Amino acid sequence: MKPITCFQVSHSRVFKGVSRFITSAATIALIGLASGSAFAADPFRSEDPHNIGDQTEAAFYAFFRDGDYVEARQYLMAAEETEAAEPMVQAMLASLAYLDGDLDELAARAEQTQTAANALIAVDPLRGHLYAAVGTFLEGAHLLKTEGTVRSMPTVLSMLQQVFNHLDQAERISRTDPELNLVKGYMDLLLAVNLPFANPQQAIERLESYGYPPYLTQRGLAIAYRDLKQYDEALTAINKALEVAANNPELLGLQGQIYARLGQREESLASYEKALTYRQQLPEQIALQLQYEHCKVADVIPNSECSTQFAAGSFE
């Protein structure tokens, strides 16, 4: 583990990216992957599934496979009633609050994520430690938003140490676990993007070797290769993700972005236009980002739909 001081560079983007992974993830689908047991629903493991819960699993698919935030929210409301002990429910609700700009709700859900995760450690220590780490990240996202980077820095760095302590505990239990490696793979990727001395190859190897399901692993690989300016490899990865999640608007947006960087304007426009047919199922800021990116490629900025008040991000 590198010293915690290495996280002083662009740590706010790290928190944002990891919380997006949990929701957006996500950043964030396997063909209706069935769990291997009648007693567990698990979108990460086809063998020896953990007991995650049907409503939580359905919410995960809606978020990460389908990019349907409206449907995901409905599943999460049901999961709160029937699967309240599952920390991923609170983590996804926390990240929805982050995207909605509801900072009080973000703080409450981050705390509930940690409470549920700490309780889970006794019966499922790998996932308990994993979501204790995620909850701390979400708490850090709230702190950065409410107190600002400079004021929150000492606390944030201490929290990052807690995050990696929990992840180390989870990795001692199973270093090849798919769910763990998805979270750590995206973390490695975010650090590699933000730290000049970090190596993105670690993220690539982790996601390729152990990550699952493929609509998330290939999405992460596409982002990694995009940031390395290896656009042909990025396109291969995003196309693989779309093979199993063909109608995910965020994946389509990332494909459009990669096509644009390859200079394939017509293909890029087609990807964005298909993505925008699903805008009603997206949070406003993601729909605006898709629209803005489309307008950039179409070279129609400014116009009535391409507000100069919105600065586009990068579909992570």
TrEMBL record:
Positions annotated as TPR repeat: 215-248, 249-282
Keyword Nucleotide-binding: no
Record keywords, A-Z: Signal, TPR repeat
Domain of life: Bacteria
Signal peptide: 1-40
Protein name, entry field: Sll0314/Alr1548 family TPR repeat-containing protein
Pfam families per UniProt: TPR_12
